[in-house]
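Lecture notes, unit on protein representations.

Consider one protein chain, 120 amino acids long.
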Amino acid sequence: MTTAMWMRGACLAAAGMLAAGTCQAKAAPAAAPMAVPSASWQITVVMGPRESLPATLARAGIGKAGAAEAAAALADVFDPVNPHPGQTLGLEVSNGPGGGLRLERMSIQAPDASVRLWRD
């Protein structure tokens, strides 16, 4: 079993703080779009009421282990357990082993923050 390595960038516009990674505050010029490998595609999913981040990712077709890895990688900047109803997640996915989807990248946009997660 291989362990996924995740990179994360967080941009907290309200605090005026830029954490490690490639993220810009909304007031800054937009960064160039990331290249998307041809074997992957992008989907958007909205968190439902009383739905955790792993549950939302599972509903989008991400396997349980992948959803848990992503939630753990974001735990110190995004509460993965308490609901964020209406929160939109931008996902880049590819075909994973066993017919499920493998999460390649994820972005979360909120009024005061932006978080991006990508597989290293």
